[in-house]
Each structure stands twice: as structure tokens, then as C-alpha cells.
């Protein structure tokens, strides 16, 4: 067991180091984005929502086709991948990189690797469920897809995408400031109250 844990920790450290190397040119930009996403200043949430709203209003106004939208998105990613490392090096400079910044950059890369592992783990569990309990898998997947299809039919797809993107951008800040844990704890207390009430009624 201890040997397995050591292998897992070593593999995690290796994957984190590889990701750090791949994102070396983006490290200053990533740290700046991290500060915004964690709401280090009180006006950051408003700026996030405002910027997201402007982008989606522009998409709504231009109303591009799916192919045009995908082409523009990929083009912007390619331009960013080419220009950002060069511009970041000239703007920030490599001499200003501190030990604290390196530690935070390492934590971000470590969290990204862990998140990737969670996604892969969920996918493996889903595949295992398909093999072990095909009826449960089929019912769960079909029910989930029907629910998503119904929601997509009721809400405009662009507005729904806007809500999802806004929530994902605000999620790190909500988690950092304890909003998620606060309301999760409240929900758990309410559920426990309901369960206790049901037990009393059954008695």
C-alpha cells in the first residue's frame, strides 16, 4: 500500500513537472488569471461577469455560424499561443520571478493534473458501470441526456452557454471565499433535518 502511494505521488510529481515545463511561457499570465479567478480584489467578480457579458453580446450581435465561430476561436488560440509567451517575457521579464510565484505556479499545475486525473477517474468508473451494470448505465445516461436536451430546448443555447461559462469563471472565487462550502453545509443540514423528520414519522 505504501509502495503504491509512493508510486502515485512520484507519478503526480512527474506529471506536474512536465506541465510546468509546457506552460513555462504562460506562467505570468496564468498567475495573473489565478489572482482574478480567486477574487484577490473585490471588483474582480464584477470584471469577470462584465467581460463575459461583453463577449457573449458580441457573439449575439455578430451571430456567426458554427463553422465561423469555431474557426475564429481556434485562430485566437493559435495567435495567443504564438504571441503570449514572447510578449509576457518582454513585459514581465524573467528576473522578476520570485520563489512565492514559483510555489503558486507549482500549486496551480498540481491542481490541474489532479483535476485531469479526477476526470479520467470518472470516465473509468462510467466505463466500469457499463460493464458491470449495463441496465443502470443505460438508464442513467439516457435520463441525463434527456434532462440536458429538455433544458436546451427550454433555454436559448447562447444564454445557457453564457450562464455555464459565467458560473465556471466564478467557481474558483466562490470556493476560495467559502461560499460553496457554506451553502453545501446548509443543504446538508436541511437534508439531515428532513431525514430525521421522516424517521420520527415512521416510528
From TrEMBL:
Domain RETREG1-3/ARL6IP-like N-terminal reticulon-homology: 27-184
Topology of the protein relative to the lipid bilayer: Multi-pass membrane protein
Main location: membrane
Pfam families hit by this protein: RHD_RETREG1-3
Keywords annotated in UniProt: Membrane, Transmembrane, Transmembrane helix
An example Gene Ontology biological process: cotranslational protein targeting to membrane
TM spans (from-to): 43-62, 68-92, 136-153, 159-180
One GO term describing the cellular component: Sec61 translocon complex
Stored PANTHER family: ADP-RIBOSYLATION FACTOR-LIKE PROTEIN 6-INTERACTING PROTEIN 1, ADP-RIBOSYLATION-LIKE FACTOR 6-INTERACTING PROTEIN
Protein name, entry field: RETREG1-3/ARL6IP-like N-terminal reticulon-homology domain-containing protein
UniProt source species: Poecilia mexicana
Amino acid at each position: 500500500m505504501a509502495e503504491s502511494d509512493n508510486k502515485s505521488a512520484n507519478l503526480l510529481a512527474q506529471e506536474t513537472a512536465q506541465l510546468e515545463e509546457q506552460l513555462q511561457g504562460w506562467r505570468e499570465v496564468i498567475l495573473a488569471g489565478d489572482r482574478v479567478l480567486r477574487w484577490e480584489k473585490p471588483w474582480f467578480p464584477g470584471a469577470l461577469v462584465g467581460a463575459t457579458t461583453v463577449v457573449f453580446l458580441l457573439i449575439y450581435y455578430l451571430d456567426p455560424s458554427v463553422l465561423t465561430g469555431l474557426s475564429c476561436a481556434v485562430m485566437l488560440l493559435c495567435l495567443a499561443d504564438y504571441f503570449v509567451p514572447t510578449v509576457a517575457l518582454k513585459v514581465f521579464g524573467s528576473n522578476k520571478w520570485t520563489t512565492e510565484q514559483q510555489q503558486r505556479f507549482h500549486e496551480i499545475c498540481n491542481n490541474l493534473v489532479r483535476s485531469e486525473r479526477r476526470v479520467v477517474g470518472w470516465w473509468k468508473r462510467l466505463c466500469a458501470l457499463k460493464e458491470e451494470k449495463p441496465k443502470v448505465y443505460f438508464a442513467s445516461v439516457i435520463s441525463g441526456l434527456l434532462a440536458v436536451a429538455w433544458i436546451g430546448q427550454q433555454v436559448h443555447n447562447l444564454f445557457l452557454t453564457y450562464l455555464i461559462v459565467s458560473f465556471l469563471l466564478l467557481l474558483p472565487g466562490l470556493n476560495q471565499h467559502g461560499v460553496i462550502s457554506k451553502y453545501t453545509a446548509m443543504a446538508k443540514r436541511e437534508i439531515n433535518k428532513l431525514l430525521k423528520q421522516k424517521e420520527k414519522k415512521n416510528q
